[in-house]
Design brief:
The chain is mostly helical and 217 residues long. The protein contains 7 helices and no strands. Helix 2 packs antiparallel against helix 3 (116-129), helix 4 runs antiparallel to helix 5 and helix 6 (170-197) runs antiparallel to helix 7. The longest helix has 61 residues, at 5-65. Mean pLDDT is 77; it is low at 39-47.
Length: 217
Amino acid sequence: MSERLPLKQNITLKKIWPTIKKIFLLILIIGLAIFFINLPEATYKDFSILRSSLSNYGTRQRNTNLDLKENNNSPKSASETAALEKLKRERMKYVNESRARMYVESATNDYYKGSYDEALRRLNRALLYDPNNFTAFKLSGQIFFENNKYRKAFNNLSMANQLSNDDKTLARDLDVLRKLLRHNRLEINKLRHTVNTNPDNKIAKARLKELEERAEE
């Protein structure tokens, strides 16, 4: 008897298994039906919440960056308008200064490579974005000095010296340039006198022309 009992249990399970399977499938079908019936409403609610969240985020961004108008068209007070304009100016100033630093960095690399013309071009661009960039003025003056363009070198270093800085070499460089400019002026005067008294002196004429062109630069 003890050996036949498991067999009877197996036979009974086989008989009721189709019924259990049908019940399980019925429950699954009912659950899926309920899920799909409620899905559009849940999805719509989630989408509404997401859209509202994104809309609020966009409004905060527009108020902070001042790139777009606010959703409401309510008039602003004078103090609010002044504050917004100040924020806008500060943001633009930061952007321009960042661009200027990038140009100065590239110009410095050009300078060390010996590409002076390209370096000056980039430095001019930097000064368009930031007219108070100390490094741009100083490096321009250094390049002009090395190319014997003493007047331009002096002008750029003078502009750099007017800006806030702790460079202790500027005063020395400016003093050297003053002496060179003064010496060139004296030499020009002497050469003009020589050329006037001796018009056939080609060497004096060539040197005079060189110094005058350098003085103009």
